[in-house]
Amino acid sequence: GETRHVLMGTVLTELRMEPHTITTFVDITERKRAELAASRLAAIVESSDDAIIGKDLDGIVTSWNKGAAKIFGYTAAEMLGTSIMRLIPDDRRDEEKLILGKIRLGASVEHFETHRRAKDGSLIEVSVTASPIRNATGQVVGVSKVARDVAERKHAEGILREREEQLRLYAEHSPAAIAMLDRDMKYVVVSHRWMEAFRLEGGPLVGRSHYDVFPEIPRRWRDVNQRSLEGEVERCDEEIFLRADGSVDWLRWETRPWHKADGSIGGIIIFAENITERKLAGAALRASEERMRFALENAEIGIWDIDFVNGTIRWSHTLEAQYGLAHGAFAGTFDAVTECTHPDDRAAVEETLRNARASGEDFSIQSRAIWPNGEVHWLNGAGRIQLDEQGAPVRGVGISMDITERRRLEAQFQQAQKMEAVGRLAGGVAHDFNNLLTVILGYCELLMRDFDQGDVRRSDVAEIQSAGTRASRLTRQLLAFSRKQIIEPTLLDLNQIATDLQAMLGRLIGEDVEVALNLAPDLAYVMADRGQLEQIVMNLAVNSRDAMPHGGTLTIETANVELDEQYAKAHPGVEPGGYVALIVADTGCGMTPEVQARIFEPFFTTKEAGRGTGLGMATVYGIVTQNRGSIDVDSEIGRGTSFRISFPRSDETEHVAETPPTAARPSSARHTVLLVEDEDGLRELARKLLERLGYIVLVAANAVEALQLFEDNPSIDVVLTDVVMPGASGPELSRELVERRPGLKVIYMSGYTDETIVHHGVLRSGISFLNKPFTSETLGEKIRQVLEP
Question: How confident is the model over 471-499, as a mean pLDDT?
Answer without folding.
Answer: 68
